Amino acid sequence: MKTRTLIAALLCIVGSSVLAEDAVHSALGTNSPLAHPIKLSLEAGSTGFGGTLAARFCKHFGIAGGADYFAISDTGREISGVKYDAHLRMLNENVALRWYPWTKRSFFVSAGVLINQNRLTGDAVSDGSLEINGVNLPAGERVDLTY
After folding, report:
1. What are residue 67's phi and psi, to 5 degrees?
2. CA distance 122 to 141
3. Which one-letter DSSP state was computed for residue 36?
4. Coil, strand, or helix at residue 64?
């Protein structure tokens, strides 16, 4: 049942996109999907805020590239008497080749590369009760983490 609902929702989204594109082409007085071969889109999601620049360079093929970025820090958080600082940076770039099965539709299938430059860093200063891998760290010793 959940699978059927998901498929129906996806078909509605694809259908809405196709109808919206047809309305735009009618309003512009053009039937060619290549009338605006370069498109810029803005996005927000779990990888951050960013955008994509896409170009359709022939009837069935195009290329797209984009980036997303998000950063957050939490400093001075105290847990069981130990102060922690943490910094998260989400940075991703992508490049993809797009294949458009239909020349007069915006539907495409893409294959590409996502370059992940996410980084998590943090540090803590031991109060004498901080234990890492079974080893108690003396008070005042700083521990750095980079992932």
Report:
1. -150, 150
2. 14
3. S
4. strand
CA distance 44 to 4: 27
Q: Are 121 and 86 in contact (CB under 8 A)?
A: yes
135-136 and 142-146 strand pairing: unpaired
Is pLDDT at 116 greater than 60 in this prediction?
Answer: yes
Residues in a beta bridge with 39: 54
Tokens of 49: 């805020």
Residue 71 pairs in a beta bridge with 89
Look at strands 119-125 and 82-99 and give their pairing: antiparallel
Per-residue pLDDT for 122 more than 70?
A: yes
With beta carbons less than 8 A apart as the criterion, state whether 98 and 132 touch: no
Domain ranges of the chain: 1-31, 33-146
Average pLDDT over residues 80-93: 89
Pairing of strands 109-116, 119-125: unpaired
Token pair belonging to 54: 């896409």
Q: How far apart are CA 109 and CA 105, in angstroms?
A: 12
